[in-house]
Design brief:
Layout lengths: L5 H4 L9 E12 L23 E3 L5 E5 L6 H18 L5 E2 L21 H14 L1 H4 L3 E8 L1 H11 L4 H19 L1 H7 L41 H14 L12 E4 L7 H4 L3 E8 L10 H16 L6 H16 L13 H14 L4 H15 L5 H6 L8 H15 L14 H13 L2 E6 L4 E6 L2 E6 L10 H7 L1 H10 L7 E4 L2 H6 L1 H4 L4 E5 L9 E3 L5 H12 L5 E5 L4 E8 L2 E9 L2 E3 L6 H8 L5 E2 L6 E2 L5 H9 L13 E3 L11 E4 L6 H13 L4 E8 L14 E6 L5 H4 L10 H8 L4
Parallel strand pairs: 18-19
Antiparallel strand pairs: 1-3, 1-4, 1-5, 2-3, 5-7, 6-7, 8-9, 9-10, 11-14, 12-13, 12-14, 15-16, 15-22, 16-21, 17-20, 22-23
Helix pairs in contact: 2-16, 6-10, 6-11, 7-11, 10-12, 16-26
Length: about 750
């Protein structure tokens, strides 16, 4: 049964782009002396015995970053970016990841076999050292794993006439592998990025730069006597098994083909279980991208693989593969500015790629990918190897590798509060995701907009929202804390001090209440609120106009408003986790300090330029607005936004000190007396909260605190206390809280 012409016979509505993808990236850790790091695999990366994402490859200094299965190339690359970010910030700060496939200068004594717990894996690596030498093992690259989508395969199976889905999957993957080996030279031309080797890498130095040492016979390949047939799956399996039986290969994974059939632990199982995906192993690290590969490359390769399915099979496949291998070697060892050889059948593969785009009416983006290939064929200087040629200095890439590697390392440390690729998510969630990846806890983003993630280790599964809402809290607990009236009642009955006040569901009734509080300091706030929204504070008595405006602001957030007494003192946020106060924060209300030159509006704009400030909790500090609340506050101090305050005069823009409304954060965990921490933890327990932000007003923290004589009052309890504001502070050391949450959720790791 033939698969030739199957795509052309299928409907154009076929989900042709449906597939899943996985990426594996190897990179060497480089020390401060710009040589291979002699340090052990970073301890902060958890255990290599189970880590799903960050492993060691051949040597102790060679990291392997492994993405989970993704349903798009975009998501696969996004996760690889996150892994690269975590790895870059987990290695010693004096180290960096080498951005090139060929290592810097080294000798075999610099290379230490990975110190793994599995005895066989150590034995396997020692065997490789004996057979191939350690030096070749130090080359790095990227493996591209691809599985055709289930709906796509099912549709093609229906069109094929096959009776067995296993046989169909085996044949279709075998055809893809065959054609990949026939045309992989195009990928070598486009993406080859190992033009030279440093002095001592080979016994004889290359006389000139080439395209890709790694993809040539000089790369990490099996010895010439290993020749596995791709004529049929049975022949592929029997050849591999025969080499193992003879001792020429120690294991199936020692077969280093440019493409491998994957899906089962042993190749023999493919006959009964079926091949499920392909592992494409030809990609050099792209040193112009911090992730080692670009989005355009991934999508071009995806289109390339589909074109391999569009093409007819060969009737003399082993012979064709042999000839194609010679062509690939010729291209790999050609000068980076050489065009493709005349005998390279480029039109065949380009027509197949064009056939996919035209028949299935793919977007202009895919047509652009083909046009880019054609352009690089005409202009070899635009290929990666061609671009690298400009960076070669006296047959060395060391200076470029050092510069680029350090630049990528510096990029990883830019905005260290964020997880690269996931910056649009809430910051506390990003921090927890970083820690999960670092420690080797499996991670899946369930709803990006709702900050909902799944974490698991083995059979243990936890669902987390906003980094702190977990199964450790009962359903009712956040509802209690969301309702300020219920919170006050429970705390008061438990004997804890709370603000006195009244609630109003009617604005007219709230206005009539003014006669009772017109001479008092008050707080006007929505009954149910978070992040300090809708709150107005009057440290001195408010006039009726200001009071009415405050009611309007509060009623805009909720249909019930609280009018509470204002308690003089300093407001602190206590973060309580599982019955213990882990952090204390002093929050200073949004403010600017005059310089005698700029208006308040200008000073706000200048302060907002701080890189720590952003929107929607994606940065440690929030942008300061000049809205109704801020203008009301200015009015009370006798200012307008256009006034110029005197030098060093502080102008408050808010009474409430929430970071979410532009306040400054100061970590005071180490200087806050323990009795206040204990009291805050007791308040959290009173409402059954596992995670809780406790806001206390403390007139004088030098006075002792107890339940009987608290010397403080609780403003509110917060069910979503924005963990990040304790970690990256305006002042103070900051407290890393997400690792503690993760440790509580997964004590077994």
């Amino acid at each position: 049964m033939s698969l030739n012409g199957l795509l052309e016979k299928s409907p154009a509505t076929l989900p042709i782009l449906q597939a899943t993808f996985g990426l594996e990236r190897e990179s060497l850790r480089i020390g401060k002396d710009h040589r291979i790091a002699q340090t052990d695999h970073p301890a902060c990366l958890g255990s290599r015995s189970f880590h799903p994402y960050i492993q060691t490859d051949y040597s102790e200094a060679q990291l392997e970053l492994i993405t989970p299965i993704a349903h798009s190339t975009k998501e696969a690359l996004r996760f690889l970016g996150a892994l690269t970010d975590v790895a870059g910030r987990s290695i010693d700060k004096s180290e960096y990841l080498w951005p090139l496939s060929i290592p810097p200068k080294l000798c075999e004594t610099d290379i230490h076999i990975a110190k793994l717990e599995d005895d066989y894996e150590c034995y396997y690596r020692k065997h490789l050292a004996d057979v191939y030498g350690k030096t070749l093992q130090s080359m790095s690259g990227i493996h591209f794993n691809m599985e055709l989508g289930k709906d796509l395969v099912a549709s093609l199976f229906k069109e094929s006439g096959y009776q067995s889905i296993i046989d169909f999957k085996n044949d279709i993957h075998l055809k893809l592998a065959q054609n990949f080996l026939r045309f992989r030279w195009l990928l070598t031309y486009l993406y080859g990025a190992s033009p030279i080797a440093e002095e001592g890498f080979f016994s004889k130095t290359l006389a000139k730069p080439v395209r890709s040492i790694r993809n040539s016979h000089l790369g990490y390949v099996n010895h010439k006597d290993i020749q596995v047939s791709y004529e049929s799956l049975e022949k592929y399996i029997s050849d591999i098994e025969a080499y193992i039986a003879s001792g020429k290969l120690i294991a199936e994974k020692e077969f280093y083909s440019a493409v491998r059939l994957r899906g089962s632990k042993h190749v023999r199982d493919y006959l009964t279980n079926g091949v499920t995906y392909l592992e494409l192993r030809t990609f050099d690290l792209n040193p112009f991208d911090n992730r080692g590969i670009t989005q355009e490359t991934l999508d071009t390769v995806h289109l390339f693989v589909l074109a391999l399915l569009w093409l007819d099979s060969s009737s003399a496949i082993d012979q064709d593969i042999t000839e194609a291998s010679k062509l690939n070697d010729k291209i790999a060892l050609s000068h980076p500015l050489d065009k493709l050889p005349e005998d390279a059948p480029i039109e065949i593969i380009l027509l197949a790629m064009q056939g996919i785009v035209d028949y299935f009416e793919l977007s202009d983006y895919y047509q652009g990918l083909i046009d880019a290939i054609k352009n690089q064929i005409e202009h070899p200087e635009q290929t990666i190897a061609g671009r690298l040629l400009e960076e070669i200095d006296t047959l060395s890439l060391e200076s470029f590798g050092q510069k680029q590697g350090q630049a990528f390392h510096d990029y990883a440390w830019q905005a260290p509060y964020a997880l690269k690729g996931y910056e649009n998510m809430e910051l506390s969630t990003q921090l927890l995701m970083f820690d999960a990846i670092q420690k080797g806890v499996h991670l899946e983003v369930l709803d990006e907009n709702d900050q909902f993630i799944k974490l698991w280790h083995g059979e243990h599964v936890e669902y987390v929202k906003n980094a702190n809402m977990t199964g450790k809290d009962s359903y009712i607990t956040p509802l209690i804390m969301e309702n300020k009236v219920v919170t006050k009642k429970l705390l008061s009955k438990a004997g804890f001090p709370v603000q006195k006040g009244e609630e109003f569901a009617d604005k007219a009734a709230a206005l009539r209440y003014f006669s009772q509080i017109k001479d008092k300091a008050i707080v006007v706030k929505p009954k149910s609120t978070n992040f300090g929204l809708g709150i107005s504070i009057f440290k001195e008595s408010a006039d009726l106009t200001a009071y009415q405006k405050a009611l309007d602001i509060a009623f805009a957030e909720d249909d019930t408003v609280l009018i509470e007494e204002f308690i003089s003192g300093t407001e602190y946020r206590f973060f309580v986790l599982d019955g213990k106060c882990e952090a204390v924060l002093l929050r200073v209300p949004a403010n600017v300090v005059g310089d005698g030159k700029h208006t308040i509006a200008q000073l706000v704009e200048m302060k907002n330029q701080d890189p720590l400030r952003g929107r929607d909790h994606r940065s440690p500090l929030e942008i300061i607005d000049l809205g109704d609340v801020e203008k009301l506050m200015l009015q009370q101090q006798g200012y307008t936004p256009d006034d110029i305050p005197a030098d060093r005069v502080r102008v408050d823009l808010r009474r409430n000190s929430n970071i979410s409304t532009g306040g400054d954060s100061i970590d005071v965990t180490d200087i806050m007396p323990d009795d206040y921490k204990t009291l805050a933890a007791q308040m959290a327990r009173a409402v059954g909260a596992w995670v809780c932000g406790v806001d206390l007003i403390i007139p004088d923290k030098s006075l002792p605190a107890s339940k009987e004589e608290p010397n403080c009052a609780c403003i509110e309890l917060n069910f979503n206390p924005a963990i990040y504001l304790h970690t990256y502070c305006h002042e103070g050391p900051g407290q890393a809280l997400t690792p503690k949450i993760l440790a509580k959720l997964f004590p077994e790791i």
